[in-house]
Amino acid sequence: MTAQADDELWSAIADPSRRRVLDLLVSNGAVSASWLAGHVPFTRQAVSKHLVVLEQAGLISRRKQGREVLYQVEADRLDQAARAMADLAAQWDRRLATIKRLAEAAHAENKSRKQER
Amino acid sequence: MTDLVIDRDVLIEAPAEVVWRTITEPDQMSQWFADRVELVVEPGAHGYMEFGDQGGPVVVEIVDPPTRFSFRWNHPRGEEPAAGNSMLVEFTLTPEGDERTRLRVVESGHERLAWPDAEKQRYADEHRGGWGEYLDRLATLLAKRRSG
After folding, report:
1. Which CATH number do you get for residue B139?
2. Within chain B, how many helices (H) and strands (E) appear?
3. Cβ distance A94 to B32 under 8 Å?
4. Which residues contact B46 (CB under 8 A, 6 or more apart)?
5. Where does the pLDDT of residue A23 fall: very low under 50, low under 70, confident under 90, or very high at 90 and above?
6. Cα separation of A100 and A90, whole Å?
7. CATH 3.40.50.450 fits A3-74, yes or no
8. By CA distance, what is A88's nearest residue in B?
């Protein structure tokens, strides 16, 4: 993923209202914007805005069914987001492991110097 | 803190003063973070970090030896790091006995990089809790739905 794609993804997910919309889509499959509006404490307009952002981030997609437009979660993209998150954590684990090694080596060296004196 | 993203810790067999030097001295930082680090460890100091053939600025925030150290960076963008366009890295050192230190790191800000100002403010006002676990939970739920 590019940095720009990352940003879109994180900002899409970081918003609590959008997470609520995502939650509903994960639990209920393909639903319409009107249905969503009936299940959240914010306006139909706000729902539409959130759907646009989620769609731009690739987290959801839409399809037409008769006269209705239905929204659904893009499972692969969501998995990708979860993995990217885990990668960031793993990167810090590696950095912390290096810090641990460096600090413990420095400490051992300090101690042996003191003993020599 | 409501907007944490990454929160990890490690137990180190060394006193806090030794761990402090490892995380704050530029020649040490260049071994665990960037390839090259130019930094004066003072609050508000601006420095530079190099990763391979790319580099970016870093700004020191809190220096409270030997317990707290934090800085902002926004590699690979290159803008001056400030709240809203950068990642904040916060280290906390907690002694556990004479020669043992718990080192915790929290990196936040990944989700705010691309936001317009109004939305950032709204986010700060509304945000209820960390969302790293949320993402895991959602992915798990989705996996269940797909297999079930």
Report:
1. 3.30.530.20
2. 4, 7
3. no
4. B57, B58, B59, B60, B80
5. confident
6. 15
7. no
8. B6
- Do β-strands B36-38 and B46-51 pair in parallel, antiparallel, or remain unpaired? antiparallel
Which residue in A102, A109, A114 has the most chain B C-beta atoms within 10 A of its own C-beta, making it the best mutation to test that interface?
Answer: A102
Would the CB atoms of A99 and B145 count as touching at under 8 Å?
no
Question: Which of B51, B91, B135, B147 to substitute to test the interface with A, most A CBs within 10 Å?
Answer: B135
The tens digit of pLDDT for each residue in A30-73 reads 999 999 999 999 999 999 999 999 999 999 999 999 999 999 99
Nearest-angstrom CA–CA distance, A26 and A94: 33
For residue B125, the model assigns a pLDDT of: 45
All residues of chain A having their beta carbon less than 8 Å from the beta carbon of residue B9 are 96
- State which of A2-11, A84-93, B28-37 shows the largest mean pLDDT: B28-37
Q: Which amino acid is at A105?
A: A
Dig out the tokens for B125 from the structure: 């006002």
Min Cα distance A68 → chain B (Å) is: 24
Instruction: For residue range B25-74, list pLDDT tens digits in order.
Output: 999 999 998 889 999 999 999 999 888 877 788 999 999 999 999 999 87
ipTM (interface pTM)? 0.74
- State how many domains chain B has: 1
Report the candidate in A33, A62, A64, A68 with the shortest Cα–Cα distance to residue A47. A33
